[in-house]
Write a structure and sequence with these properties.
The protein has an eleven-stranded mixed beta sheet, with helices on both faces. The chain has a three-stranded antiparallel beta sheet with strand order 10-11-12. The chain is α/β, with parallel strands linked by helices and 359 residues long. It has helices at residues 35-38, 100-103, 105-111, 137-153, 176-188, 208-213, 241-245, 253-261, 305-308, 342-356; strands at residues 4-9, 12-15, 21-22, 45-53, 63-71, 79-84, 115-119, 168-174, 193-197, 215-217, 233-236, 266-267, 288-293, 325-329.
Length: 359
């Protein structure tokens, strides 16, 4: 299958210029089905997992990464999705603590027969917080590479002493997590597919100035002032996440409020080498799905992705054998998982993964 560009329209994923369609949950803007109808097969079977990593090959300083492994009940998953959150989030982005039947990516993936491993990146959540300057995108990608090796080896175990062994490994990223995912895949070439979200190769998106205007040192924020963080960890100024990460007409205020209450920090080092990684997508030779909210001002030019056409040539940054596929999600901004339309792109992504990588 050659390159294709998809647009998510009224809940159906349509391949532009190709007469095929991927099944997805219908969605009418503003509608919110009852929680019971969103639950799928129920809560997945989950356990905590710890990994010990270094920041570069040959380094001796070791750091701890925390994660949660979730599997389908009653069947063995052969494909693992490693979920990598964006800046100022933690692993709860993928299993959001509000109406999980709608907003949890983890539940949708497990319902589709996949295992997920949502990690707290170094410098976030329950993982270690090294000196902020040394936690770069490249260092983070190297840490993720060590996790990929661990889950493939069959030697790593979860807190319940169950062995982790998967036939296929896919990286799923959000924003800077996508940047780290393509860096890992472009350097190490050890995964079977990529699902990138909320990212493009546009180095000057219109929302970028807001990320500086609405950022401040984490030790100034009431949520983190007593957390004992090293210097130069930053977070978002309270009350502005809606402007940064949302297409507000496509989201619910209660979700934005929970997002604010569960926000996290990021080490300043990830900002040092972000753009040095953009050429690495030329080295990716596995299937790539890129999912972007139509009103994501951190990935597209104004007035929108479709209105500006600014990501129409995104496939040119990948080789032909990456089989690049692009999904534009209507009525959504940067934090795709936290918009009404989240279930539609979740389901489309699982369908794409089944067809391009396998279960």
């Amino acid at each position: 299958m050659g390159r294709s560009q998809w647009k998510l329209l009224q809940g159906a994923a349509i391949v532009l210029g190709v007469s095929s369609q991927v099944n997805a949950q219908p969605f009418e803007p503003g509608s919110e089905p009852a929680e019971a109808a969103e639950q799928g097969s129920g809560s997945p079977r989950c356990s905590l997992v710890d990994f010990t990593v270094t920041l570069e090959p040959g380094a001796t300083d070791e750091y701890h990464i925390a994660g949660e492994l979730c599997r389908p009940r009653g069947e063995r998953a052969r494909t693992l999705q490693i979920l990598v959150h964006g800046n100022s989030y933690n692993r709860s982005y993928w299993d959001f603590p509000f109406r999980p039947g709608r907003y949890s990516y983890v539940r949708r993936a497990v319902d589709a027969g996949y295992a997920t491993l949502s990690i707290d990146r170094l410098g976030s959540g329950e993982s270690d917080h090294p000196p902020a300057e040394i936690v770069t995108v490249h260092a983070s990608a190297h840490a993720i590479h060590q996790i990929v090796e661990a889950v493939r080896s069959g030697q790593h175990r979860d807190e319940e002493d169950r062995r982790l062994r998967f036939r296929r490994v896919v990286l799923v990223g959000h924003s800077f997590g996508s940047n780290m995912a393509w860096t890992e895949a472009g350097i190490y070439g050890d995964v079977d597919g990529l699902i990138l979200t909320a990212i493009s190769h546009d180095q000057n998106p219109p929302g970028a100035p807001l990320t500086q205007q609405y950022a401040w040192l984490a030790n100034l924020d009431p949520a983190f002032a007593n957390a004992g963080l090293p210097p130069n960890y930053i977070t978002t100024v309270p009350g502005f996440r809606d402007e940064l990460f949302y297409h507000v007409p496509g989201a619910r205020q209660a979700v934005i409020d929970v997002d604010e209450a569960t926000k996290d920090v990021l080490p300043i080092g990830v900002l040092f080498d972000q753009f040095t990684t953009y050429d690495l997508t030329e080295n990716i030779h596995v299937p790539v799905l890129n999912v972007i909210g139509d009103f994501d001002t951190l990935a597209c030019q104004l007035p929108s992705c479709t209105g500006s056409g600014s990501v129409a040539n995104e496939a040119d940054f990948y080789p032909d054998d990456a089989d690049y596929t692009q999904l534009i999600v209507p009525n959504a901004g940067h934090s795709l998982n936290l918009h009404h339309s989240a279930p539609s792109w979740y389901e489309a992504a699982q369908d794409w993964l089944r067809d391009h990588v396998g279960r």
